[in-house]
Amino acid sequence: MRAENVWKVYGTGAAEVIALRDVSVALARGQLTAVMGPSGSGKSTLMHCLAGLDAVTSGETRVGDTRVSGLRDAELTRLRRERIGFIFQQFNLVPTLTARENILLPLAIAGRKPEPDWFDTVVDTIGLRDRLGHRPAELSGGQQQRVACARALITRPEVVFADEPTGNLDSRSGTEVLGFLSRSVREFGRTIVMVTHDPAAAAYADRVVFLLDGTVVEDLPAPTTDAVLETMKRLDTRGAAR
Ligand SMILES: Nc1ncnc2c1ncn2[C@@H]1O[C@H](COP(=O)(O)OP(=O)(O)OP(=O)(O)O)[C@@H](O)[C@H]1O
Ligand SMILES: [Mg+2]
After folding, report:
1. Residue 150's pLDDT band (boundaries 50, 70, 90)?
2. Would you say the CB of residue 52 lies under 6 angstroms from ligand 1?
3. pLDDT at residue number 149
4. Given ligand 1 and candidates 45, 90, 163, 194, which is best to mutate, with the most ligand atoms within 8 Å of its CB?
5. Which of 16, 18, 20, 43 has most ligand 1 atoms within 8 Å of its beta carbon, as the pocket-test mutant?
6. How confident is the model at residue 77 (pLDDT cuts 50, 70, 90)?
7. Is the whole model's pTM more than 0.85, yes or no?
8. Is 44 in the pocket of ligand 1 (CB under 6 A)?
9. Which terminus of the chain is less hemmed in, N or C, by CB atoms within 10 Å?
10. Is 17 in the pocket of ligand 1 (CB under 6 A)?
11. What is the DSSP code (8-state) at residue 158?
């Protein structure tokens, strides 16, 4: 998956905002990549452009061999439905459906049958077998996010995009969700791109890409919490000096 010379401009004239300026980044399969940077630096915009949720202004994005930026609406819908999973900060579960129904919803929408073994694997990994009959309101935030993780993985997508998946969780639930995401990468070979503000969360990743003002400014392999903190401090100084 990659972005090549991607520009994203919102609005025109005085209202113009350049959210991404000439971003090129390649994200390896089978890795957990964290995307960090100050508020407004373009993290969500980059994910949305990679996932085909938002159109690039120029440049191109690819998922596998597919040029996302060139797809028509119907093809985009299929790409998102069949090849991409999403996890949001606000969980976004359907309140009237049980945990089981929420997890299976992407398959139901795509008209696909669940593979029983994979459903069991995912459910056992999130550790919520005894809660499958509960509705979201009957689950804690951490449990809801684990259901959302299972929902994102049930279709075996090529890539899962997670926008601040632990942003609304206490540290224990956050750790559980991060453990689940990194197991999905290491044991099941999934590819995950995760936006986070938390250096400890970023340390679960194989690599951290830092954005500042819509540009990739740092690329940190094998991150530790300390290395991430160091880089954040350095960028903070740069940001303040602008
Ligand atoms: N739909 C939109 N219309 C106009 N401007 C937008 C839109 N979406 C984002 N922007 C602007 O683009 C820039 C990047 O926004 P983006 O949401 O990607 O930031 P972010 O890094 O995800 O920030 P945060 O950490 O606060 O979520 C910001 O200046 C934002 O105001
Ligand atoms: Mg954002």
Report:
1. very high
2. no
3. 92
4. 45
5. 43
6. very high
7. yes
8. yes
9. C
10. yes
11. S
Architecture of domain 2-241: 3-Layer(aba) Sandwich (3.40)
Write out pLDDT tens, residues 96-123.
999 999 999 999 998 999 999 999 998 9
CA separation for the pair 21, 58 (Å, rounded): 10
CA distances from 170 to 159, 163, 177, 213 (A): 26, 16, 11, 29
Ligand 1 pocket check for 39: Cβ under 6 Å: yes
Contact 199, 180 (CB under 8 A): no
pLDDT in tens, 28-65: 999 999 999 999 999 999 999 999 999 999 999 999 99
What number does the ligand 1 atom closest to the CA of 48 have? Answer: 18
Q: Are 147 and 101 in contact (CB under 8 A)?
A: no
Distance 202 CA to ligand 1 centre (A): 21
User: For residue 124, which amino acid is it?
Assistant: D
